[in-house]
Specification:
By secondary structure, the chain is mainly alpha-helical. Helix content is about 55%, strand content about 5%. Helix 3 packs across helix 8.
Amino acid sequence: MTTNTSTTATANTTAHTQSAGHTHSVGRIDFAKAAPKVFRALVGFDAAAREGLDPALVELIQIRASHLNHCAYCLHMHTNDARKAGESEDRLHMVAVWREAQHFFSARERAALALTEAVTLIADGGVPDDVYAEAAAQFDEQELAHVLSLILTINTWNRVALSTGKVAGTDERR
């Protein structure tokens, strides 16, 4: 996925949408239209973050953060993108339980998944030194900065999608 996160954030304005198990009877804003400069800045941040990263790694990070944030919209989008990029069903099914299925993932992927969890759940205790050290051992400084940036962008996209009532299966990039 190279430029397709851009519409992740556009809001569903249809009444009676579902998000996180709740029904919304009030129309939600179209984020891209309501805050176009912010939206474009986020798209640019997202594009810059993924520069130089392996596309499979990008999708794994986005999938894991979306699991943790309970963002069905982004999870649906990124698992589909991963499949289109050649990712196996086995690995896609194992992302949520990667610690119990470590042999499905490389050392770099495991380090990125652990960092994704720590940053996404940062309020639960920050980013532990051992998690950061393992990521720093697997990625050079520039790559690590990009991995961190990607984690930040997907967490932002998840929050935009959830707060604007995006519905899984309604990928508006197409």
